[in-house]
Automatic annotation (TrEMBL):
One of its GO terms (biological process) is cytochrome complex assembly. GO terms for molecular function: metal ion binding. Residues 154-182 have a biased composition (Basic and acidic residues). Gene3D superfamilies: Cytochrome C biogenesis protein. Residues 1-25 form the signal peptide. It holds the Pfam family CcmH. This is Cytochrome c-type biogenesis protein. The chain crosses the membrane at residues 110-131. Residues 15-164 form the CcmH/CycL/Ccl2/NrfF N-terminal domain. It comes from Geopseudomonas sagittaria. Possible subunit of a heme lyase. The keyword Signal applies.
Length: 201
């Protein structure tokens, strides 16, 4: 029973050792002729994108292809190649994707101007929607001809005329009764006050 804790310590130690060896394997150690080449190497690996990783440069990526590219850049620097020659070599092999800032040409035109075209298209659609909502509804053919009842059938027109006549009679009857009520005093007290007013004059 006492062997169990010691075997756990042994397993933990082996795990830690294997992890530390794996971490050391990911670190590149290259020899350079001078500090200028070391600075160029650092700049190139930070400015070039890993072909496998979406948004990670060659310097930070642990992907096997990034390790190969770092080794290739170191080899070309040792051969005395310029930065442009190294970048052109990598672009020929992996395309403009390896550059974080690709040049504007026929292959990258959509990459540079595509977002602006999409933004312009979206604004155009939005403008059309707003203009259509602000525009008043087109008048019907009957209203445009000046005769709003022209699209009614004969039966509907007769019913409409009857309703209009009835409403005219009711409104005139109501007006006459209102005028009559205003002209006749409502009670004798009002009649007396009207007589007193005449007498005072």
């Amino acid at each position: 029973m006492k062997r169990l804790p010691s075997s756990r310590w042994l397993a933990a130690g082996l795990l830690g050792l294997s992890l530390s060896l794996g971490a050391q394997a990911a670190i590149d150690t290259y020899e350079f002729k001078d500090d200028g080449d070391r600075a160029r190497y650092r700049t190139l690996t930070e400015e070039l994108r890993c072909p496998k990783c979406q948004n990670q440069n060659i310097a930070d990526s642990d992907a096997p292809i990034a390790m190969d590219l770092r080794r290739e850049i170191h080899r070309m620097l040792g051969e005395g190649k310029s930065d442009d020659e190294i970048v052109d070599y990598l672009v020929d092999r992996y395309g403009d994707f390896v550059r974080y800032n690709p040049p504007v040409n026929a292959r990258t035109w959509l990459l540079w101007y595509g977002p602006w075209l999409m933004l312009g298209g979206g604004l155009g659609v939005l403008a059309l929607i707003v203009l259509r909502r602000r525009r008043p509804a087109a008048p019907s053919a009957a209203a445009a001809s000046g005769n709003p009842g022209s699209d009614l059938s004969a039966e509907e027109r007769a019913r409409l005329d009857q309703l209009l006549k009835n409403s005219d009679h009711k409104s005139s009857d109501h007006k006459n009764s209102a005028d009559h009520k205003n002209s006749v005093p409502k009670n004798s007290a009002e009649q007396g006050s009207a007589d007193n007013t005449k007498a005072d004059r």
